[in-house]
Amino acid sequence: MGQSRLESLLQLRGSKVQLTLSGSSLSWTFQKRWFCWGRQGSTVSVPVNEIVKVHQGDTKQQSKTTDGPSIYFTVYHISRKSAQRWTLEASTFTAHSCQEAHDWVTVLQDRIQNCGAERPRKLLIFINPYGGRGKAQRIYSNKISPLFQLSGIEEEVIETTRANHARDYILETDLQKYDGVVCVGGDGMFSELLHGVVRRTQIDNKVCENKEGAMLTPCKLRIGIIPAGSTDCVCFATVGINDPVTSALHIIIGDTQPMDVCASYHYGELMRYSVSLIGYGFFGDVLRESEALRCLGPIRYDFSGFKMVLSNRFYRGTVEFLEADDSQSSPKDNTRCRTGCQVCSESSERWKEERDAEFHCCDSEMWQKISGSFVAINVTGMSSACPKSMDGLSPTAHLADGTADLILVRECNMLQFVRHLKRHTNKKDQFALPYVEVHRIRAMHFTPEKLDEEGATRRRKGIFSSLCGAPPETSSWNCDGEILDCAQLSVRVHHQLIQLFARGIEGTSCSR
User: Fold this and answer.
1) Residue 168 class from Cβ within 10 Å (0-12 exposed, 13-18 middle, 19+ buried)?
2) What is the pLDDT of residue 66?
3) Which of 256, 376, 399, 461 has minimal Cβ neighbours within 10 Å of its Cβ?
4) Which pLDDT tens digit goes with each residue over 296-337?
5) Residue 292 vs residue 114, higher pLDDT
6) Mean pLDDT along residues 65-93
7) In the chain, count of helices (H) and strands (E)?
8) Which of 168, 179, 187, 356 is catalytic?
9) Residue 304 Rama label (left phi>0; alpha psi -120 to 50; beta)
10) DSSP annotation string for 426-440
C-alpha cells in the first residue's frame, strides 16, 4: 500500500478509536461518547520508527504467527514517561474481522521495515558481572533480554571474566555476522568495546593506529550501552538518563548517534582512546589516590576527591592547542548538543575540507601556547554530564563536531577551586571565574615543567600538605577512568569515529 493513508474505526480497551496510519506516524483518536468523560476526543500519536513490534493477536498470543485467526492485533511501541525515560507499551486493537487485523499487521510491518533506521538482527553482548553495583546480570536477564526476544533480536551473550576480555574477544572474532556490540556495565566496560571496535576497524582497513599522524577509519559497527555501572557517564551524556530499558529500546529501533573520539599519544605513540574526560592534575590525582582504596567501592572517589581538594596541588607546564573555528560554535555560546544537532550535522563537510590543512600545516602560528601553574587541565569530547553533575564539565560540548573542550584551571587557593567544582552542580557559569579558561580545540600538546624553588616551597607550606602527603613533581592523566602514567601527552580529536545506538538527548538546544 506504499505510503498511502490508512484508516479504520476499531476498538481499544473497550473504547472506539479512529486508527490512522499516515506517512511516518500511527495515531488513534478516542471517539466522543455522551456518557463517557475520560479520554474522549484525545489522540495518541506514535512515530512508526518507535514501533517495536506488531503481531496479530493479543499480548498473550505474541509467540504465534500473524496468520492466526484473530480479530485482535497488538502494537508494541515506545511510550515516554518523562523527558528522557522510555518504556514499552502494548496497545491491542480489535478489528471487525480477522482479515482486517491481518491487513493492518502487514501494512505496519512493511512501513516499519521502510522507516529508514537499520534495526539490528543479531547482537554480540558482553556482561560485566563485577563492575559498578554488581547488578549487570540481573538487569540483563530480567529487563533487557525479554525486550530483545520480543523484538526478534538474536543474542550472543558473553559474561566477562577478566579485564579486557571484551576487547580481546572483539579483536579475535569474526564480526561480520553481528549488527552491533553491546556492553552491560559501566564506563570501563564501554571503554573496552571502544578500544576493541576501533582497533579492529583499523586492522581490517590496514591502518596503523599507533602513530599520531594516522588518519583513522570510522567504525561502522555500532556500540550499545546498557547502563549498570557506578556513574555511566557516557550513557547519560548521549541518552539523557541512565535507565537500562530506555537504552535497550534505543538499540531495538536502531537509533544511531555518531561520536567523536579523542586519541592520546605519548611522544607520538598511541596510549588510549577516550570520549569523555582526559584530566591532568586534580582528576588524575583523584584517580591515582583512589586505586589504593578499591575496597571502599565507588565511595573511594569521594574520599580521594576530598583529600585532593585539601592538598590543593598545582603543576607547572606548557599547553599548546589548535583552536577550532569559533564561527560555528563556542564553549560559551550556551547552545546544547541535542537530538539532530545542527552543529554536529554540518560538521562533516567542513571537517573534510579542514583536517588536512590543520594537522599537516607547518605554520606554528596556528597553535596557541599557554604556560603556567595549573590545578587542573581537562579535555572533554562531550559534556561529561552524570547524575551528580547534570551539566557536566563543559555543558555546551558537542558529541560529533570534531572538537573537544580544553578547560584550564590555573593555580588558585583551595576555596577558589571548591567554588569552581561547586559550579559543576549548581548550574552557574563554571567558566566565569578569573582563574578558569576554556577553548574549543582539535588537538592539544602538554609538556610538564618542574616547579621553580619558590613554587615548590609554596606548595610544601600548604596548610594540609603534611596531612595529605608530599605532592609529586608531576601528575598523571585520567583517561576515562584509566591512569596514563606519564605527564607529557598529546591529544587529537577524530571526527565521528564511532557510532552508538542512541539519538542524543532529546530537548531544546538551549537550556539556560
Assistant:
1) middle
2) 46
3) 461
4) 777 888 888 898 999 889 999 999 999 997 677 899 988 899
5) 114
6) 88
7) 14, 21
8) 187
9) alpha
10) S-S-TT-STTEEEEE
- Quick check: pTM over 0.70? yes
- Whole-number Å distance between alpha carbons of 273 and 296: 27
Q: What percent of the chain has pLDDT over 70?
A: 88
Q: Are the CB atoms for 343 and 335 separated by under 8 Å?
A: yes
Question: Residue 331 in contact with residue 396, Cβ under 8 Å?
Answer: yes
- In this structure, CATH architecture of domain 6-113: Roll (2.30)
**Read out DSSP for 104-172?**
HHHHHHHHHHTSS----SEEEEEE-SSSTTS-HHHHIIIIIHHHHHHTT-EEEEEE--STTHHHHHHHH
Quickly name the fold that domain 264-346+364-495 has. Answer: Tumour Suppressor Smad4 (2.60.200)
Percent helix, strand and coil across the chain, each to the nearest 5: 30, 30, 40
Distance between CA atoms of residues 182 and 173, nearest Å: 15
Q: What residue segments make up the domains of the chain, in order of their start?
A: 6-113, 122-255, 264-346+364-495
Residues, the chain: 512
187 is catalytic: yes
Residue of 29, 17, 6 whose CA lies nearest to 95:
17
Q: Which CATH number fits domain 122-255: 3.40.50.410, 3.40.50.1380, 3.30.479.20, 3.40.50.10330?
A: 3.40.50.10330
User: What are the tens digits of pLDDT across the range 452-501?
Assistant: 766 666 666 555 555 556 678 899 999 999 999 999 999 999 999 999 99
Q: How many CB atoms lie within 10 A of CB 450?
A: 12
